[in-house]
Every structure is written in C-alpha cells, then in structure tokens.
Amino acid sequence: MSYEFAERGSTEEVEEGRALAPKFDADGLVTCVTTDATTGGVLMVAHMNAEALARTIESGEAWYYSRSRRRLWRKGESSGHVQRVTEMRVDCDQDAVWIKVEQEGPGACHTGRRSCFYRAVPLGTAPSRSLVLELREGEKAFDPHAVYGAETK
Amino acid sequence: MSYEFAERGSTEEVEEGRALAPKFDADGLVTCVTTDATTGGVLMVAHMNAEALARTIESGEAWYYSRSRRRLWRKGESSGHVQRVTEMRVDCDQDAVWIKVEQEGPGACHTGRRSCFYRAVPLGTAPSRSLVLELREGEKAFDPHAVYGAETK
User: Fold this and answer.
1) Which portions of chain B are predicted below pLDDT 50?
2) Which residues of B3-23 are buried (b: 16+ CB within 10 A; e: fewer)?
3) How far apart are CA B72 and CA B84, in angstroms?
C-alpha cells in the first residue's frame, strides 16, 4: 500500500496544526490506546509502526505492530476478534493515538478476557511484596487455548 | 520513600497472578493511560518510572516521569491541575497501567485543552500529505502561558 505522513514541523505546527505528523520512537513505533466504543473502558495498549497506522486509517480496522513477534499484526487475524475503529484521535505531540473500537467477539486480551486491564492495584500504601492485585472483570470470556492454539498474543 | 515490586516470574505468574511485577522497558518506564473518571475519555498517555508508579500508588495522586525533562513529575506541580486517582489497573503483561482520575482544574494537556487528544484522524483513505485532522473538543480550557509561564508540559 502507498501512504505518506507529514514531516514533523515546529512544536507549534505539531501541536496546533492539522497535519498528521506522527512522532515514531527509536523503534519506529507510536503508542496506541484502544478503548471500547460501547463501554468506554480501555481494552488494550499496544504499538503501531507507520504501516500499521496507515493500514488502520485506510481500512478502519485495527492493525498493530507486535514487538515480541516483530511483525505487523491485524487484530483478530488468529482469533477472529477483529476491532472496527469508530474514531481515531492523535495526541498533542503526536506520539500516541487513541482508537475507539467495536470489538468483535468476546474479548481483546490474549488471556481470554474482554480487556487486558483485569486487575486493580490497591492504593494508599507504598507497594511492597505483600501487595495483592484485585480481580476486576477477570472472568475469562473465551478459552485462549481454543482460540489461539499454541500461539499466544 | 521505600517501596518494592515483585520479581518478574513466569508468563503464567505475571498474567494470572496477584503480585505487582511491572515490566519496565530499557529506559525503566511503563506506559500510563490516564482517563477521566467522570467522562471516561482518555486525557493523556504518559510514562512512569518505578518511583513515579510507587508514589502514585502510595499517594493516590498521579506522578509521572517526563522523558523530555528526564525527571520525576507530580502532575499539577506547576499548573495546580492535580489528578486524584480513583482506580489503577495493570495490564496482562504488566508493562502498562491505566489510571482513572478526577482532574483538578480545567484540563490535563499542556496546550490548554482538557485532553491531549483534541484532534481526530479521518478514516477510510490511506494517509497522505493532504490529510486534515479534525478538531474535537479543541477549545482551550485555559491559557497555557498564564498557567505554565515559559515552561511547557
């Protein structure tokens, strides 16, 4: 596919302008926050390289770049749990995007949950080894082994 | 302050366990997504080092690590726009946290907006230099120069 982003200009241009000039990090990635268009909850945090970002914009389906597998990754390519993007936003310095998605299937997380954020951290005390995370919506919505097989994430 | 996190164990332990064992990257950081506890919208994406994470957990106020300024940063220390954390979650592989906050003052973004994500990316066409971002809630909620002075972010 053919695509092009704008050059990074001055801070003023990047923050106040209307051109999409992403700030890819040393690994060529921007951070992507993915929220559920229905509930508003955060489903996952992942990364996009230039091609994943371009494909997401063009197709309206979420594409990411897997750092562990070092390859482009269409969300749902293994699981069928595709994400249809209803809106994409970019942040002030353009090193992060936020997509709101309609999540196909029972969940976004490779562990079988709807969201990757199924554990809460208790607040009010400095963290120690005795800190115990609390489950939130931690029930598995699907069996990851049945959906992904040997592959995970 | 004194704090301690758990050692990183097996994938099973990290994903299914109840211990907080953050995966800090090569720069010693985890990604933090900050949402508005009232509206559910994403206010900002930032980073926390171990101390920022520990201080946030202990105090219930958001602390970050500024990569540009290379220092610990209590949100609101310049602007007074403190963030009170109502809930913190950690993701499956524990390299990202999600905090829901009550945002003190008019906004979280150093440009003067409530959220850093005030521009939408039009979908359906491969990105080109003619792509034009669309303003969303892009009105400035405060004057950043008056609040931050010469300092930004």
Assistant:
1) 152-153
2) bebbeeeeeeebbebebbbbe
3) 17
Q: Which two tokens stand for residue A152?
A: 């995970």
Is B3 part of the contact surface with chain A (CB cutoff 8 Å)? yes
Q: What is the token pair recorded at A15?
A: 């923050």
- State how far the alpha carbon of A86 is from the alpha carbons of A62, A74, A103, B38, B146, in Å: 10, 16, 10, 21, 36
For A9-94, where are the E strands, in sequence order? 30-36, 42-48, 63-66, 71-74, 83-90
- Our measurement of the distance from residue A77's CA atom to the centroid of its chain's CA atoms, rounded to an integer in Å, reads 15
What lies within 8 Å, CB to CB, of B10 at 6+ separation is: none
Residues of A in contact with B109 (CB under 8 A): 92
pLDDT in tens, A56-100: 999 999 999 999 999 999 999 988 999 999 999 999 999 999 999
ipTM of the predicted assembly exceeds 0.90:
yes
Q: What is the DSSP letter of B61?
A: B
Q: Give the Cβ contact number of residue B31 at 10 Å.
A: 20
**DSSP one-letter code for A69:** T
Helix (H) / strand (E) element for A135: namely: strand A134-135
**Mean pLDDT estimate for chain B:** 94
Radius of gyration of chain B (CA): 17
Q: Which of A16, A17, A91 sits opposite B117 (nearest CB)?
A: A91
- Cα(A100)–Cα(B14) distance, integer angstroms: 27
Phi, psi of A44 (to 5 degrees): -165, 160
Q: pLDDT value at position B152?
A: 46
Flag whether residue B119 sits within 8 Å of chain A, measured between CB atoms. Answer: yes
Name every residue whose Cβ is closer than 8 Å to that of residue B66 and which is 6 or more positions away in sequence: B72, B73, B153
